[in-house]
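Q: Predict the assembly, please.
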Amino acid sequence: MTTRRPDDERAAPPDWQRRESLLLAPWAMHAADSAGRVHDELPHAFRSPYQRDRDRIVHSAAFRRLAHKTQVFTGYHGDYHRSRLTHTLEVTSIARTLARALALNEDLVETLALAHDIGHPPLGHAGEDTLAELLTDEGGFNHNAQALRIVELLEIRYPHFPGLNLSREVLDAQATRKKDGTAPAPLLEAQVVDAADSIAYDTHDADDAVELGLVTMDELLEIPLMADAANRARDRYGPLAGAELRRAALHEVVEFEVAELVTRSRAAIAALGIESVAEVREVFRGQGGMPGVRIVAHTPAIAAGKRALEQFLFQRVYRSDRVLTVRVPAQRKLTRLFDWYCLHSDEMPPSFRGRVEQFGVRRSVADYIAGMTDRFLDRDHDLRIGPG
Ligand code: MG
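A: Predicted assembly structure:
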């Protein structure tokens, strides 16, 4: 008797393909047109290639560790604020709304959103800056490049190859985030995730900052984007103050930015006569002497409003004493632990140790440390080097 695996392609016709051709626009990336994977795999009976990619991200160790990685604030600051994982889930939620409204491939969008931050090391941007400095002579460190290293090399889930063997379109989208000009022009699915990332962090960082007392609501309301949102919230709910006003106003900002983005993107698709993925890419690169454009982009007025909010957050939050006070000792710990592992690379787990010959000790130690959560780094530092 022969056994039949669920991924035997004779088991069922691909329902997902019929579903996509019914629901997706011609400018969406259809999974049937995927350029495939580096390592050939049998098609799955009922999951599309991008559904499988999404599941591979969710089941990866790097994804789970996002729960204990800093977004902006660390565990020292309490437990109201976002972690890297909850940020990722907010981005995914917004990105799926945008994708559905624009008839894009939601499975692909979900994959890209869930994966977009998995390359972040512990301790947020403090960790990234420190690793970048430590690796100056080895080509630096960047979380977008690291995300690719994770999905192509560092995650070990299959017996026959390293990495997650994701679809080409997922790798390309992550490569465009490196912004080094080597990747193909981004699909609309990738553009949607970039926009959702920016909508999510602007608003949730403002929310966290007020909750943690770094800025007051009155200060936030001096930013026109926030003031307008507060006015709309009051129109909708009547007089509001305190935490009620904060929640309602920030909800309005998200709602407003998403709605405007949908309207503007739909209009751009129509005006440019976009009818294929190839045309999305041509328009991004620019053609016939015309400059390239992102189809999923805010109006200049909203973009300026967001910039004002981001400048405010940069000065008052990301560079605030409360964030920087935690940052300096954390960077010192990371550096000490990095130096320690460079001298004791045999103490790393076998998979990291095993890459030293190919990639050098400093890059391999960086791979190991970048994968740590904030609290693992803390504990490991105290174990290896001693507290203080
Ligand atoms: Mg992000």
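Residues 8-12 have pLDDT under 50 and may be disordered. The pocket of magnesium ion is lined by residues 87, 91, 116-117, 197 (CB under 6 Å).
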